[in-house]
Specification:
single chain; 163 residues; mainly beta; Jelly Rolls; 7-stranded antiparallel β-sheet; 3-stranded antiparallel β-sheet; 12 strands; 48% strand
């Protein structure tokens, strides 16, 4: 996976300041949300075994709107955190293997999610919603869970900020 970050050079002109893999990628496995194993990876794997997920931290800011020279909070990130500090936002890419079940959870974030490929089921207290490539969903800090089936891997793009 390639991540291109733009910024300002010493003369105040727009330029590319980073071009390479995401600074922080995590592999998540485990039987349920209470027993997760999380490991750092150098990049997002092309394939994952069943019941496993990879998360690439693409960008995070401490405040919104971000200043042009705001530091990328993913720099030096060594452990996965579901929510990064501040009132800014986090941009993530996730690859889900087959048969993943996240377990119900509630976050203090506004989540904007777009399905890039594959299928995933959003579980809510009163129903489930089947999502596939091209679908988007907004989750404003509500209790929810995720479940993938036994078909192709699922790719999601997440934008999150503190609700």
């Amino acid at each position: 996976m390639r991540r291109v970050v733009t910024g300002l050079d010493e003369n105040g002109r727009s330029t590319v300041v980073e071009d390479g893999p995401p600074r922080a990628v995590f592999h998540i496995s485990g039987e349920d949300a209470d027993h997760l194993v999380i490991e750092a990876l150098p990049d997002v794997p092309d394939r994952l075994p069943p019941r496993q997920t990879a998360v690439a931290e693409l960008w995070a800011t401490a405040h919104a709107p971000a200043e042009r020279t705001a530091p990328d909070l993913t720099a030096g990130l060594e452990t996965f955190r579901s929510v990064l500090p501040g009132t800014g936002f986090t941009w993530r890419f996730t690859r889900w293997g087959r048969d993943v079940e996240s377990g119900f959870h509630t976050t203090e974030t506004l989540d904007l999610i777009h399905v890039l490929s594959g299928r995933i089921e959003l579980l809510l207290d009163d129903r489930s919603v089947a999502l596939e490539a091209g679908d988007s969903v907004v989750i404003p800090g509500l209790r929810h869970a995720w479940r993938t089936g036994d078909s192709e891997p699922t790719l999601l793009q997440f934008m999150q900020n503190l609700a």
